[in-house]
Amino acid sequence: MRHTERQLAPRLAEAHLQGMDPNKLPAHETMADRPGRAGTPSDVVDNLSDAWSDSSQGLIAQSTLKRVCLDDDLELDPSVEETLGHMRFRGVKENTARAIASDLRYIAGWHFTAYAKALPMPTPASVVQTFIAHHLWDPAIKQTNPAHGMPDWIADGMEQLGLKRRPAPGEQRRPASPSTVKRRLASLSTWHRWHRDLRAANPLDDPDVKAALADSARGAATIRNETAASVGSRRGKKSEIAIVADHITAMVAACEAALEVPGTDDSDTRAELTSDQLRALRDRALLLYGWASGGRRRSEIANLRMDQLQPVEGGYLVSLGITKTRDASASEREDKLVPLMGWAAQALDAWCQAARINQGRVFRSLGQSGRVSGKISDKTVNRVVKRRAVEAGVVDADSADRISAHGLRAGFLTEAARQNITMIDAMQMSDHASERSVVGYWQAQQVLRNPAGGLLDRARDPAAGARSSNP
Fold first, then answer.
1. What is the secondary structure of 373-437 as a DSSP string?
2. In Å, what is the CA distance from 231 to each residue of 174, 372, 379, 385?
3. For the whole model, what pTM was predicted?
4. How far is CA 182 from the centre of its chain?
5. How many Å apart are CA 187 and CA 104, to the nearest integer?
6. Which residue from 19, 42, 60, 288 has the fewest beta carbons nearer than 10 Å?
7. Whole-angstrom distance, CA of residue 154 vs CA of residue 30
8. DSSP code string of 16-57
9. CA angle 358, 364, 370 (to 5 degrees)
């Protein structure tokens, strides 16, 4: 039985916030010991508090977060306690709270699957060390030693609960990335720091846990680098190839090669289009929007809605709304607008007209018959980028893993640096929160333009050096 993320709210929240007993099950009983009680996980998750997330926005309910941020046993005047709790709550952004809640759901789901009981609070250091060992392991050792890393029966249970992705037929399970494990454990540490009675027993302050996490993360990174080197790719980079202007032009041309689009008059153009032509229209609009609007993240592309588009002369103003670095907290309620003009806006219009989209999600999935249906996922965006890059010859089929949807973002910034656009102007479009994330693109182009790089050629041909310095 697959449960939604909302249903998988941690039992620790049920126990800690609702006053329930977290130790109803025997301490040493596990899911493996109880094969006849497969329904037990649903008994736990189906009755949890609904206050963790709002059904429409997926944001943490403010009332619950206030309770989480308050210290229940402070011996203070009630008004002082309320003030401190309110200010602590206001300091937690909704995106941060949402991420912490998601991490806690995962850890609590793992613990229930492994131990058949609620995650204890405070969490013992031994439990955290087990979590690390279950998520950071060596795939080569796992092939000969099933006990290495996460036991298969735990992985099976987590896949049934929707906590882990089920591998494709013939695909081997993989360990988690070190950064993901560190982030999830940081969320557990934050939960302990938020509660006065848990702070002293924070397992992430334990020297053995610190050493286990650091050593395991270092070992896992070494294994990943060795694996990447053996297959000739640089694993860990979001997109090895930045999709600059030449690339995006070629990829759009690959879409247009599949088009013989009828005139855009009042006739029923959609009925005259094949499914491949509709897909080409969608992909062209998707690529141009993702690149030209500032290098949008793949989730922002997949979630774009018609009500975010404000028509202006020559195109649109796009409201970014809530993004990875911008949430709905009080300090950031001013909407962020970026322009989408010219070619990209025209491509968007052509897709929406052909697909008859005038509300809801802009980019939709397409059936084999060309039927326009529901929303796409960020994974679909990634697949579109890879497929069109291969068709355009940007990469070949064997090296498609060198490019991803993040290449749209990296390519926009790289092209901006090439064309001497100021970093501030580019950041206004990309909506980066910090210069540290984008300065590398400008530094790389400055290195290429360094005149000292041509010293040898100028020594051989002084006239050429004079011509290059005086265009």
1. EEEPPHHHHHHHHHHHHHHHTSS-GGGGGG--THHHHHHHHHHHHHTT--HHHHHHHHT-S-GGG
2. 16, 38, 23, 22
3. 0.54
4. 16
5. 7
6. 19
7. 10
8. HHH---TT-S-TT--GGG-TT-TTHHHHHHTTS-GGGS-TTT
9. 100
Specify burial of residue 200 (Cβ count, 10 A radius: 0-12, 13-18, 19+).
exposed
Give the C-alpha distances (Å, rounded to integers) separating 176 from 131, 132, 236: 11, 10, 12
Three-class DSSP category at 148: coil
- Report, as ranges of residue numbers, the positions in the chain whose pLDDT lies below 50: 1-74, 231-237, 261-270, 328-333, 467-471
- Angle 392-431-362 from CA coordinates, rounded to 5°: 55
**Contacts by 153-160, CB closer than 8 A, 24 or more apart:** 153/31, 153/32, 154/31, 154/110, 154/113, 154/114, 157/31, 157/41, 157/113, 158/109, 158/110, 158/113, 160/1, 160/2, 160/41
Which pair of tokens denotes residue 115? 């131990």
The residue among 249, 141, 125, 122 whose CA lies nearest residue 195 is 122
Q: How far is CA 109 from CA 45, 46, 145, 147, in A?
A: 9, 13, 25, 20
Count Cα neighbours of 368 within 13 Å in the Cβ-side half-sphere: 0
Per-residue confidence (pLDDT) for residue 289, from 0 to 100: 96
- HSE, side-chain direction, 13 A CA sphere, residue 124: 8
pLDDT of residue 293: 94
Pairing of strands 372-375, 309-312: unpaired
- Residue 228's pLDDT is 59
Instruction: Verify cis geometry, omega within 30 degrees of 0, for the bond prior to 122.
Output: yes
